[in-house]
Every structure is written in C-alpha cells, then in structure tokens.
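Hey,

Quick one before I head out. I ran the complex with zinc ion overnight. Inputs first:
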Amino acid sequence: MSDGLAVTPGGWQPLPEWQRDVATHALSRRDRWPHALLIIGRKGIGKRMLALEFARALLCEDPDASGDACGMCLGCTYVAQGTHPDLRVIEPYVFDDEGNAMPVDSIAIDRIRELTEFTHLSAHRSRAKVAVIAPAEAMNASAANALLKTLEEPPEQTYLLLVSHQPARLPATIASRCLRLAAPQPDTASAATWLKARGVDRAELVLAQAGGSPLLALDLADPSLQRQRDSLLDELARPERLSPVALGAQIDAGAKDERKARLGDALYWLLTWTADLAAAAAGASPRFHPDRVEALSRLAARVARVPLFRYYRALLQQRLLLAHPLQPRLVAEALLFEYRTLFGRG
Ligand SMILES: [Zn+2]
C-alpha cells in the first residue's frame, strides 16, 4: 500500500512522564532539528512513542513557543489518528487487501522505495515531511542500502526518525549519518505508576518480569500470558516431574502463527527463569521472578553451573532463530529435555 493510509498497530499516544524532559529539551532546539535522528535505548521503554511525539511536533501547524505540538490543529489531529499525509511509519509489517497489518521478520526494500518516493513529493499540509522507521535494524541489507541514498542527499524539510533497540546491528554508514538521542529508562516507581494507570494489577511484579521495560510489561500483563507463565514456572520449579512432551503439545495447539507466538512467549519465560537461576547460583537476587525466590534458590543448590550457562546461551541463540522455527513443538521439547539434564538429584 502506498497511499499512506495503512496504519500499523499502536499509533500516537501521550508521552509517558519519563520521556517528557528529553522531549522538551530536544524540541526547544527544533530550529536546528537534524535531518536524521537515531533514537536508541532498551526495548519497551517507549522510543517509538517518543519518535511519534517528535513527528507530531514537527508536523504541528501551530507549535507553542517551546516547540511543543499544540495538540489542537489538524496536523496534530491527523498524527493522533495515524492518518497524516506527511507522516510515514515504517515497521516490519505487511498489509493485506483490507489494510490489516501482519507482522513480518524484516523491513524490505519496497517499503524504503515507497519512503524515497514520499520524501520527493511535496508536503500535503505542512512544510515538513516525517518518516519513522522502527526498529531501524529490522531493515534488510538492500533496504538499508536504499535508505542510505536518502540519508546522503536529504530532501529539504524531510525528517527521518530511526528507532533502534540494537544500534550495533545497524550498518555504520547509516548510524554515522544520524544524530543520536538516548531515550531515558524509567525508574521503577514511574513505570509502575504508568502501568497502574493502564489497569495493570501487580504492576511491580509484571515490571520485574519485563526486566524494567514498561511497554513490555503492558504486553506481559495479559491474563493468558500470566497463566502461561505461572504454569510453566510451576513445571520448571520441579524438573524431575517436568513433562517436555506435554508442554510441547500445549505449544502445538492452534494455527501456525499462534504456535510460533506461543513458542516465543514460552522461550521468554524460559530465558528469564534461566537468567534468575544463574543469578541465584551466583548468590544474587532474581531479577525477573522475585516472587519465585524460594524455588529458585532450592534449584540453584543442585544445578550444574557450566551447563547452565551453556544452556542460557543456547536459549539466546534459539531466540534469534525464532523467526523461522521448523517445528515449535519439537523446539520446545528439545529445550525442556535439556533443561531437565541440568539438575542432579534433589
Ligand atoms: Zn498542532
């Protein structure tokens, strides 16, 4: 779709409190706004929200004296609705005939070609045009190459906002042409307040599960994910009674995309649990599952440490391969069988 009306999930939202200072500071210097800004920081702290806030301010038709968006004009309204003709949000999604977004593994070159065409058209409403690419490291090599041309010869009044969780994965030729902005990480109290305002129960606990990332915590707070977590962690806490085949069968239910997603979720719980187990074995407190400290220290006493670290690395590897799991059930079974071998008799 190239008419710009295809909207990826999650449009503009009011900026969370922990992003406000950095946004205010950046917008106070908007007369010198860079052609390309690279917003970096951990996943799930609201970098994309920050990018969309910048987009709204840059496209605002009546910004206030401090450079902030007015929130009232048509430009602001269209950004909030995700329909501004001078804004493109490029993410790893493709759109079907009805305009529904479906997630894909990478941002392909045709999306960047659309972007290049867009930057060479004259702006519809305001003088500026803004494109958000999130995450920028999702661009495949040819897409990144195509973007490089726009970065080298930037059209007038065109602003690129690149969002990246892993800037080291970006080609140096891209990263070096962007001004970097580190998105701030929220402290526990402001992140928990933000989650509670969104109706999340046990916000501190879910925030711990997310490693301190509030947006990830918001996803993890989903009741069905919490049920999956509780039952998987119960099983992991008793490795001698753990049934990889039964758990593999649970992952195998439903359509292909569901199986893949369920494997990804299970892998997340397994990874965070293993990280906590390694911490407990080293005498440290669990970071992700503080409510399971008893089970973790009991297991830590009988876990084989070197195989545990090897297992953790294997899980990280498996997560990288998650885009193309051959058989979600078999992957889960193999990982759980291996988990069982980590423990001596308890
Ligand atoms: Zn406005």
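Residues 256-281 form the longest helix (26 residues).

Talk tomorrow,
K.
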